[in-house]
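Note to self: keep these together.
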Amino acid sequence: MKVLIFWDIYGRIGRNAFKKHFLSLKEQHKPDFVIVNPENISSGRGPIEKHMKELDSLPGIDVYTSWNHIFD
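Structure:
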């Protein structure tokens, strides 16, 4: 099983880079499962709904993980 993990996407720059490269990386590596940790996508303050919707619009993310920032 091949797993592709994106950990600690941080802020606007990280969101933009992720959105720009995600599909090509997915095509290149052809993972069976994709894990994304979005807890810092809102600049280290926990994810906000607007930013999670951006990620949800991308096809092929299987699960989101988090840690302490989810409570911010």
